[in-house]
Amino acid sequence: MLTEECHMNPYLESFGIEVIDTDLGERIIQLAGQPPSHIVVPAIHLKKEEVGDLFHEKIGTEAGASDPTYLTRAARVHLREQFLSADAAMTGVNMAIADKGAVVVCTNEGNADMGANLPKLQLHSMGIDKVVPNIDAAGLLLRMLARNATGQLSTTYSSFYRGPKEDGEMHIIIVDNGRTKMMQDKILAESLKCIRCGGCLNTCPVYRRSGGHSYNYTIPGPIGIAVGAQRDDTNSLAWACTLCCSCSFVCPTKVPLAKIIAHHRRIKAENHQLPYGKEKYMPLVGKLMGNETLFNCSMSIARTSLKYLPNSLLKPFAGAWGKYRELPVAPNSSFETWYKKHRS
Amino acid sequence: MSSKQAILQALSTTALSDNAMPVINIPARLDDLLSQFETSLNTVTATLHRDGGLTGLQAEIDKLSSEGKQIISLVDGVTGNREVPADPHELHDIDYAIIKGHVGVAENGCIWVNNESVGHRVTPFICENLLIVLAAEDVCANMHIAVQKVEIASGQFGTFISGPSKTADIEQSLVVGAHGACSLNVYLV
Ligand code: SF4
Ligand code: SF4
To answer: What's the mean pLDDT in B89-96?
Structure first.
């Protein structure tokens, strides 16, 4: 994930280094030339038939085969050759234990450990946010990670590296890439507590409907907005959210995602980065809704118009919203009038 | 300024205040640890062999050996039919590897192994099938206790293994046997 954030693969390839992703999902999207669509299950957007066709073309599986077990075993054989012939291995890091100088790498497939333990050179890259004080903290986070990612009891392999193998070399690359800048802002800094479990993606109604690629950022979903909105030059990412707060409630490390997303909107507004429409009409809408008389008058006009004016005349006012929707049926009175009549 | 200096300098001026590490005080479930451990192992598609001990294991190994399987043992008192090679790459055709586990975790089926018990670090991952020998008294209740029991001295490697390797990357269907071992059997001694 960090290497994608930093565009590491294309960089290495520009030096003639062949880079092979070894997590099955990562390998699938690498062969397909696509970005990941989920932080735990990168190829979640592909059907098994599509994976079957891709594998048939790239690694020579049988045409038309789509059984996940068959395809997984084929990938196992294909990637074994790569593991056995690689000159170096690079993994991500789930936690770095400060008082031990050790890194913890978690996988279910065993790809990180197959990779790191065969060639002489092992590299581990991590953001500065992965550092935890001690092994107790690592134990706590290990307990949370798999439960919230896939509902498993634990990841299959939680490996602690505190030095290279005999005659080997081990390097840990620690990356900032905007993280210390986020730490200058109390609210944005909270997003660095994330352990990348993917729980917030799985619960988000926007993610579930639109899929990971629509976010146009390496990390999709709520956490993707939280850490990516500042780099989003379309200034629209922070609005791909209904502020329903479901993500904030499921997050095991209590990242206040919805609060961060609302904060991003505020930052965009303060920097005058809102798209033209939002910048111009939202303040007017705010004024209108803040003024009781104005608001009541306009609602009464709206009710009358909905009742008497033809659809064809009103539809254009609904904009994109009205494209696939019918206009509402106007009630006879305002809620306030109805409430006064029935409750007082 | 080196990039390391730049990061450290930036870290000294953040909007965050220092927080002391909170005390972790989570009550452990201590009833029948072995049954809990067995249930967890079953959940992660591993098998626990409570009876038979090393003799039972050796009998199993002899049978596999007579079938022509390639077996490496790193446990005293159990013999396979292959020696530890100088180059870890030569382990690629090992069918069964037998290693010693140091700590078992009842709540999630994790077993801690370290580089002293595995020969080449890649052994538990590269073998087709993994067999772990574990002392019954080394099973503890949860991860909070387990991380206190494991030792990783400077330069060392250790890993918690919970079942055989697995993936659900194709249409979220669970497939056991990804890149690491395809099965895990645990022998209690
Ligand atoms: S608050 Fe926004 S990002 Fe979070 S779950 Fe709801 S819609 Fe998704
Ligand atoms: S923000 Fe929370 S829920 Fe989302 S991936 Fe990170 S840790 Fe998981």
So the answer is: 97
Sorted by where each starts, the structural domains of chain A and their CATH numbers stand as 21-85 (no CATH), 87-177 (3.40.50.10420), 187-279 (1.10.1060.10), 281-342 (no CATH)
Rounded to whole angstroms, the Cα distance separating A238 from A260 reads 9
Per-residue model confidence (pLDDT) at position B68: 97
Q: Would an 8 Å CB–CB cutoff place B36 in contact with chain A? A: no
List the single residue in A117, A176, A180 with the smallest CB-CB distance to B121.
A117
- Decide whether any atom of ligand 2 lies within 6 Å of the A204 Cβ: no
Instruction: Give per-residue pLDDT as tens, B109-134.
Output: 999 999 999 999 999 999 999 999 99
CB nearest to B169's CB, from A43, A69, A133: A43
Answer whether A90's CB lies under 8 Å from A119's CB.
no
**Quick check: helix, strand or coil at residue A163?**
coil
Residue B48 belongs to domain spanning: 30-188
Residues of B in contact with A101 (CB under 8 A): 154
B170 touching chain A per CB within 8 A = yes
Number of domains into which chain B is organized: 1
Average pLDDT over residues B70-95: 96
Output the residue whose Cα is nearest ligand 2's atom 4. A200
> In terms of DSSP H, where are the helices of B78-157?
115-118, 123-126, 143-149
Q: With contact defined as beta carbons under 8 Å apart, do B180 and B91 qualify?
A: no
Contact check, Cβ <8 Å, A158/B110:
yes
